[in-house]
Design a protein that fits this description.
This protein is globular. The chain starts with 10 loop residues before the first strand and ends in a 5-residue tail after the last helix. The chain is built from nine helices and 14 strands. Helix content is 31%, strand content 31%. The relative contact order is 0.16. The strands form two sheets. The chain has a twelve-stranded mixed sheet with strand order 1-2-3-4-5-14-6-13-12-11-10-7, with helices on both faces. Strands 8-9 form a two-stranded antiparallel sheet. A hairpin with a 2-residue loop joins strand 2 (24-33) and strand 3. The chain folds into two domains: 11-94 and 270-313, no CATH class; 107-241, Gcn5-related N-acetyltransferase (GNAT) (Aminopeptidase, 3-Layer(aba) Sandwich), CATH 3.40.630. The protein has helices at 61-70, 109-116, 119-130, 142-152, 170-176, 224-239, 253-260, 277-285, 297-313, and strands at 11-21, 24-33, 36-41, 47-50, 78-82, 96-105, 134-138, 157-158, 161-162, 184-191, 194-203, 208-215, 243-248, 264-274. It has 318 residues and is an alpha+beta fold. Helix 3 packs across helix 6 (224-239).
Length: 318
């Protein structure tokens, strides 16, 4: 086990923090331990984890566990944390499971264009430019938010599922997405002066994180997302990011897009530490990852397919 500070970190008062969960503003119960904020969620199984853990590492897991155990008022059953990509070798002796994330190692833009993608994807990258699409860095200003809002409200469904941000007005979008612009770079795609696609790219220190890639369905024939990813990789290479992360690796159409753009799957350890008997039982029966994840993978895939067909029959699938 990695060496840790041999004392319990002091924890402060419980407070609530605003967060977007599945597109909805939610008040998350939090506690500060050792100058890091940990969110506490769940009703039947109360779980604690580092707030915004894509952007930071738990500095002292042993001391955090001791602090959570000492705080009986928190009633935390399970503590979870992970090693952020590209740190793949387990460094702690706690029980862990592997999580698959999408990573693109970056050297130069030319290397990506010539070696990491195939001829078909290269043609897709150039397709938008041939059709008049321009892609550039931009600011989080009213024009950007207005275009973003228009794209959000094109359809209530995307990729066979309900789209979280559909129905939001300009002020709601501007407020909800402004919280972390201090660590994000905005990239926009335009056609004839109209924003038709965007990327919100986070700086997570050891990697850049694709927060949002979205384009107008009315211009899907112009391969806007491919042009946006190309500009993102060019920016990352210029700024010296060695890796670009695009959240999780799965078995859906978005993962196919990631694969075509040169992303690869790597598995990083996520640790689960039970703090109560309920936590131990949940870990034993597989309830620690939520009820949905207790469904066998092939059944989950079948349910996703049925859901997509249902939306398509309603005339609202994309």
């Amino acid at each position: 086990m990695a060496a840790t500070v041999a004392h319990t970190l002091a924890s402060g008062d419980v407070f609530f923090k605003s967060a977007l969960i599945e597109g909805r503003p939610t008040q998350v119960r939090c506690v500060e331990i050792g100058s890091q904020v940990f969110g506490i969620g769940g009703s039947m199984l109360r779980t604690a984890g580092l707030d915004d853990d894509w952007y930071d590492d738990v500095r002292d897991p042993v001391a955090v566990i001791d602090a959570l155990k000492a705080r009986r008022d928190l009633r935390v059953d399970l503590f979870t944390f992970w090693q952020r990509p590209p740190d793949v070798e387990p460094r702690y002796e706690y029980y862990h499971e592997l999580e698959d994330v999408a990573i693109l190692p970056i050297t130069t833009y030319d290397d990506w264009l010539r070696k990491r993608i195939n001829a078909k994807t290269r043609n897709m990258v150039r397709k938008g430019e041939k059709r008049g699409v321009t892609v550039e860095l931009t600011e989080y200003d009213d024009d950007f938010v207005r275009g973003m809002t228009n794209i959000f409200n094109e359809t209530p469904y995307r990729q066979g599922r309900r789209f979280w941000h559909y129905g939001k007005d300009f002020e709601t979008v501007r407020h909800q997405f402004s919280a972390f612009i201090h660590r994000e770079t905005m990239i926009r795609a335009d056609l004839d002066g109209e924003l038709i696609g965007l990327v919100m790219l986070g700086n997570a220190g050891r990697f850049a994180l694709v927060q949002q890639v979205l384009s107008s369905l009315a211009h899907r024939d112009k391969a806007v997302n491919n042009a946006l990813i190309a500009k993102t990789i060019e920016f990352c290479a210029q700024r010296g990011f060695e890796n670009l992360c695009y959240y999780y690796w799965g078995d859906d159409s978005l993962t196919t897009f990631k694969r075509n753009c040169g992303f690869e799957c790597i598995s990083v350890p996520r640790y689960y530490v039970p703090l109560t008997m309920k936590g131990k039982l949940a870990l034993r029966v597989g309830a620690h990852r939520g009820l949905v994840n207790m469904i066998p993978p092939h059944h989950r895939q079948t349910l996703k397919q049925y859901r997509g067909r249902l939306y398509a029959l309603r005339g609202r699938g994309t």
